[in-house]
From TrEMBL:
Name this protein carries in UniProt: SIMPL domain-containing protein
Region (Disordered): 56-75
Domain of life, per lineage: Eukaryota
Alphabetical GO biological process terms: DNA damage response
């Protein structure tokens, strides 16, 4: 009997509770005087940074059990938008912003930080992403790859059982760039964002992470 090729795709998904949460937020301002807007945003950002570092120590500050692992900020960004819809001049054309990123491992402290930031002047919460540590991610990616290959082998065995022929692997192709799927929580909101009956409430419950793998396997049935 001539050789027969069996090509299957093995898939797997491993779920794990998140270990880190990356919070991104910004201080933004606008007004009629460029220098005044820039100074206000810069001053508010400096006060915010002082508060964050005091209230939530980072492991970068030699605090091994600190609630944050990383904290960083960008330089101030300024721009001008002089006209709005229908080319009408805007009363406050000058804008400025500074963005921050804080990575939390203590989710109770994360919730506390978000509650405080939502009432902090001129602060917008940009996003919140749940993720794993690199060590856990590598371990789960390895588990997912093995499970995906086992899934492909099981499929080939099912076909070979019906055909009455034995199979062996001749090619494995893993073209997936990254097995990680972080969970994204919400878009920009601030203390003035309405949360009425028609608006979704902020859900700060940690979202499980899916670590997936997909592998194409070619078998030869003799």
């Amino acid at each position: 009997m001539p050789p027969l090729k069996i090509i299957v795709t093995g898939k797997s998904s491993v779920t794990h509770a998140p270990e880190l949460a990356t919070l991104r937020f910004s201080v933004k301002g606008n007004g009629s005087e460029q220098d005044k807007v820039a100074k206000e945003v810069s001053s508010l950002s400096s006060n915010l940074q002082t508060w964050i570092k005091s209230a939530f120590p980072s492991s970068a500050d030699n605090e091994p059990d600190a609630p944050m692992t990383k904290f960083s900020s960008t330089n101030i960004r300024t721009w001008t938008k002089s006209t709005g819809r229908h080319d009408q001049p805007l009363p406050n054309p000058y804008h400025a912003s500074i963005s921050f990123k804080a990575v939390f491992r203590d989710f109770a402290e994360l919730n506390h930080a978000i509650e405080e930031l939502l009432v902090y002047p001129k602060v917008e919460i940009d996003s919140l992403d749940w993720s794993l540590t690199d060590e856990t991610g590598r371990r789960l990616a390895s588990d997912a790859r093995k499970l995906a290959l086992r899934d492909a082998i099981q499929q080939a065995d099912d076909y070979s059982e019906v055909l009455g022929r034995s199979v062996s692997v001749v090619e494995i192709s893993d073209q997936q760039a990254s097995p990680y799927r972080t969970r994204h929580l919400f878009g920009a909101c601030n203390s003035t964002t309405p949360f009425g009956d028609d608006s979704p409430a902020l859900d700060l419950t940690p979202q499980d992470i899916d670590v997936e793998s997909q592998v194409n396997v070619t078998f030869e049935a003799a």
